[in-house]
Every structure is written in structure tokens, then in C-alpha cells.
Amino acid sequence: MPSIKVLAIDGGGIRGIIPATILTEIQKRLTLDLFKVFDLIAGTSTGGIIALGIGTKCKNDGPYSPSELVDMYVQNGPEIFKKNLLTPERQVLLPKYSPDGLQAALTQFFQDIEFQTALTPLLISSYDLQKQLPFFFKSHRIASDPTFNWKLTEIARATSAAPTFFPPLHLIKGDEDYALVDGGVFVNNPSMAAYAEARSLYPDATQFVVVSVGTGDRQDQITYASAKDWGLLGWAKQIVPVFMDSVSEAVDYELRALPGCTYYRLQVPHLQEASSDMDDVDPENLKNLQDVAEEYVSSISDVLTKMCGELKEGRGSDMPGIGRKAS
């Protein structure tokens, strides 16, 4: 019985350079566009943007390559996370950044392309503040429910609206009204959500291969001495990375224990000279992120060889024996 292949990409702001670099190597080894390999691609925040880029007809009736996404981060990062003299004061009372730079980059990148151009099932996470519930953009639901179709710019903006960094995205469709923020508040590593969705989408499948690509282990340590007296202001700067990292690590633990699931976690273990900040767009840091990712890719060559051997057969849902559940 063929296996269902699932790709999940973490959030992490400008550190999206890392998964885009790792995926560049995977695509090079497979000599196939990634949408032809994976039966489901999921992403959160920066990972959601990457998923949309490699999984839709957003460039000349086809996808972007992962290497083009690396270039997108390098070229547009400084405008997305544009700082000025007022930034430190602004972030006390307002989101740290205006959404204008992010919106401009997304519009340039995705134009007016819609979600219905997905080339394989896509799952992009966000969180609805008004209903206090997870909100998933699901391309495979569009056929039966057109309300699941959105502009790619709207989806990308919603999944990347990181609290304290950018304001929520207000979306209205029909009678529904949403205030959406970064899906990282509950699934910064969307691998478990992607696995659950794949199980639902392909109910006859018994074997799954989940490839989870991270944005680098922050390795931040908060000592008791530094945290014991924190109040609202003390926690304000730390709480977002704390809950995003903890959620990711919990998912690793859960997926490794699942029967019938082969789980590959591709995570840079140490960022070395690169910054762990989501918004460090200094040219030197952009170069360091690329260097760290390329060094990591070289260090796991044997793992990639084994993994690509399992992926090279392509999408399991294209083979006899596994059908996709009607949306």
C-alpha cells in the first residue's frame, strides 16, 4: 500500500529562509516540484507563506521554487520588518510594525491569485480572536464549499499576523466576520494538524510519511532568576517565542509515538551566528541564516537520502488503493 506524504512547515518570521533552503535541497534531489510529491502541504505563519508559494499556481500558472522563496525573504525582509527611531516606543502600545510592508510584499508575490489554484491539498493555519477558535484555510474544501476560496494575499497575511509584531487581519465573507492572527499561537509546528487532516482526507491510508521542516531551534534559556519577578511587561517580550517553541516541541513528541507514521523532523539544532529573532533583517543576519541552513543540509545528507528514497514514488493518493475523501 503506498504511503501518504505530508509536508509541514513551521513559523518563524525571517527565519523562513531556513526551511526554504532545506526544501530547495529536497526538490533538487527529487527532481520534482514538491506539489507532485506531497499529498498535503501545511504551513503556519512564514511556513504558510512558503506552502502557498510552492503549492499554488501563483507564478505563471505554476508554483515558485523554494530557492525563489529564499530570494523573496532576502529581498523583501527589510521592508516587511522595517524599523525606525520610533519602533521601540511604538511597540509598547501598538504592534511593532505597520502591516504595509508585509502587504506590499505579499501583493507583489501573489498578486490576485486565489486559493482555488492549489496544486495539492493545502492546510494553512490561523486563529480567530473573535470566536477564540483555530481557523484553518483548506484548499480541498473549495470544491464543495466555495467560501473556502480566498485570495492568497489574505491567507498569507492572516497566517503571519504574529501578535505584538503585526495587527490582526479583519476578514468578512458573507455573514461571517473574522479577526485572524498568526496560527503559531496554537500550531507553530503544524505537523500534527497536518497529519490529522491527512488522516481525514485519505481515510483508507494506513501508512504516512510526515516531513516537518523547522525554522531553527532558538535555544533560548530563561533562568529562574530572570523570570521570577516578571509581570505583564516582563513577559510581554518573551511570551510569544515561549508558547510557539513549546507547542512545536510537544508536536515532535506526539508524532514520534504514532504507529504507521514515519516522522522526519528537519530542524537546525543551533543557529550559531544567526539571530533567533523573527525580525532581524540585518544583511549580515540574512547571510548567516542562509549559511546555517546550508551547513545543516550538508550535515544531514544521509537522512535526506533515506527520506527522499521514501518520497520519490510521489503522491500516494495518485496510486491505486488510496482515494481522497470527497470534500
Describe the structure concisely for a colleague.
Helices cover 41% and strands 15% of the residues.
What does this structure look like?
The structure is a single chain. With 327 residues, this protein is an alpha/beta fold. It has helices at residues 17-30, 46-55, 66-80, 87-93, 100-110, 152-159, 184-187, 191-201, 224-227, 232-236, 239-256, 283-299, 301-311; strands at 4-9, 40-44, 122-128, 133-138, 169-173, 176-182, 208-213, 261-266. A hairpin with a 2-residue loop joins strand 5 and strand 6 (176-182). The longest helix has 18 residues, at 239-256. The model has no long low-confidence stretch (mean pLDDT 91).
Show the helix and strand layout.
Elements: E1 4-9, H1 17-30, E2 40-44, H2 46-55, H3 66-80, H4 87-93, H5 100-110, E3 122-128, E4 133-138, H6 152-159, E5 169-173, E6 176-182, H7 184-187, H8 191-201, E7 208-213, H9 224-227, H10 232-236, H11 239-256, E8 261-266, H12 283-299, H13 301-311
Parallel strand pairs: 1-2, 1-7, 2-3, 7-8
Antiparallel strand pairs: 3-4, 3-6, 5-6
The amount of beta strand, in percent, is 5-15%
Low-confidence stretches: none
Q: How many strand units?
A: 8
State the secondary-structure class.
Answer: alpha/beta
Multimer state: single chain
The overall pLDDT, averaged over residues, is 91
Main beta sheet: 8 strands, mixed
Order of helices and strands: EHEHHHHEEHEEHHEHHHEHH
State the helicity in percent bands.
Answer: 40-55%
